[in-house]
């Protein structure tokens, strides 16, 4: 009678979350001794040799060379003599022993590793970790060798939109690691959208300096669109219409062809809104809460809805249902496509509550955890196309609603103040309405109301 | 540099260091064998702990491979009333004072804060923050002065203090401040600096313009450099200056020139900042091999060395099994030693945490 002992990938640094299997020094069937080096792994910090914690015969290697494995996942199964490992505390997570009779569990363990591929390979978000340690999730996609046979390979291919992108992202992250730069300089480069690997370093030890990044940023703004992907060799690419894309298409068509759309636009001086945002950010009440122009815009729309209730209604051929509450929809571009979750009863929320609700909604959407209930029963919607650097657009109504507002980019532009040209923060508000419900005068008044709040947020105090 | 045992294992006392020879003369064969036993035990313990860290059993390990002679020799030179203030790499000094090795492993696993009583062992708790232990030692030595436990001529009363630190710590202000206070108070104190030549990735040459043993001179703390890989020099020189300190001669500094063969900690990759040639050079000057050559010349047989191996393997197996079986500590532990007496704020915090943990409906402590 014998037992199977698993050695789970330990955290060999302080706060590391994963490591890459570089070289196996043993294979299935080999006899191993306690502390015999069985594998070389590479962490974010160094190459490390791992000694096996028990003696026995290698049953199976549970990951392949080139795999990136999360800390805590089993990497090797060893058949050991009964009781050879001794008592293992439940506080220990790096070792696990099971009777050999329950061996099928190995297959399960194995599966849990090879299917461990993040849904969104190209995610650029950073995981919170100990200061100075850890790895970015850009590393996370399993850098499996091409052609490595794995049970769930088909599943992976289906879930990773583009394995080549995943590889490119991972190697880009590696290249960034090789650049010498202090953390604040790396952050500056990220904030300014400067590729730090392309900056010519001028520091005394070959490190990238603040000036280098700033120079790179000037360059970048001029040549931002110069890096164009090379033209694919295939003459065309066929992308199956399914899932979210299909749902978006159906909603757009049904909306565009059942509701007669009317769109109007107004330019507005948003300087005071930007100042207001700045003041809110600095206030202690809003510490830790994300404050953006979108928040003021949302408040402005809710305020304008109260003055023009028809824009917050639903058309049903027999009747028009005017809602005396606002379920405030926010169009969100997520890795899975466009979705419009809404904040229920946003009209009853304070500025702080609304700010938190928007942040929560965005986070949920980014994580791909938005539920159907989150997207149901919306009454009016905003789409923030400004974040993409676009001035304005003609939004299409979210089905079932009669009003949608597009917030364009806010940027310094010449503006006439007291018959003089001044530089002001200017934006364009675009809005589309269902003309069956909303007449031109109501639409214009609503948009004008929103614009006046953006011009003077103090109106919210009424 | 005081060297009594050459890398080839030849013993000899150079004329200018004759004063140290009598301390070795007073040693018996049993003492030499004890040095070897403890040095090899320290090495085996260190290697096992490194493996345990690589197996996820310790949060961190701080290897001291290569520094066995400096630690075991000086540790044995400490008198029966003397107090020791270590840094965090003094596993060998701990061995000379019978510290339970599991206590050290528990600390580096994060389940206790040391766990031995410095009042009983006279070996104080590891100091993780560089240099703090040197201030503590200096203050303690001032206290010994105030108590009048110096130069009474009664060995039952007289007391000295030794503090351990590395080359990196000498760049901390605490060390200079300690030199000053030790000198002006004529403290019964030895500053024992293990210069292992690397302060994590900073070479010692980038940290000082003068040899470290001269660092204290301007403050009034004379010093000497010894071969830190020579256990006899480490013992004899420490013994003399601890005796002198106890007899009222004031503070003294010993710089033990040695080398950190391993990484700074298991989180460090030394191949990134130093050459393999340098490491190989120092491996040839291994302090344990040196003592073994000396002992074999004295006629010590294979059986002794084999017996050491057997005992060390048993020790390694024992600490391995004990480490695997370590549970999570009760949460009350973190509140127990904050104050020596009951404290209402600590009690309030303790009660709050218990309630919080209980709110998870898991009575196992939640770890």
Features:
heterodimer; A: 462 residues; alpha+beta; 8-stranded mixed sheet; 11 helices; 19 strands; B: 367 residues; alpha/beta; Rossmann fold; two-stranded antiparallel sheet; 14 helices; 7 strands; 8% strand; globular
Please describe what this structure looks like.
The complex is a heterodimer of chains A (462) and B (367). With 462 residues, chain A is α+β, with helices and mostly antiparallel strands. Chain A has helices at residues 104-114, 153-159, 163-178, 183-191, 210-223, 243-258, 271-282, 293-307, 351-366, 372-375, 440-455; strands spanning 2-8, 18-24, 31-32, 37-42, 47-51, 56-61, 68-70, 74-81, 95-99, 261-269, 313-316, 319-322, 328-334, 337-339, 342-343, 380-384, 403-407, 411-417, 420-434. In chain A, the strands form four sheets. In chain A, strands 10, 13, 14, 15, 16, 17, 18 and 19 form an eight-stranded mixed beta sheet that branches. A five-stranded antiparallel beta sheet of chain A has the order 3-6-8-1-9, covered by helices on one side. In chain A, β11 (313-316) and β12 form a beta hairpin. The N and C termini of chain A lie far apart (80 Å). Residues 109-161 of chain A have low confidence and may be disordered. Chain B folds into two domains: 15-325, Thiamin diphosphate (ThDP)-binding fold, Pyr/PP domains (Rossmann fold), CATH 3.40.50.970; 331-365. Helix content of chain B is 45%, strand content 8%. In chain B, a hairpin with a 2-residue loop joins β4 and β5 (202-203). The longest helix of chain B is centred in the N-terminal third of the chain and has 26 residues, at 29-54. The A-B interface holds A 7-14, 34-35, 45-53, 85-95 and B 48, 51, 53-57, 59-60, 266-269, 271-272, 320-321, 324-328, 364, 367.
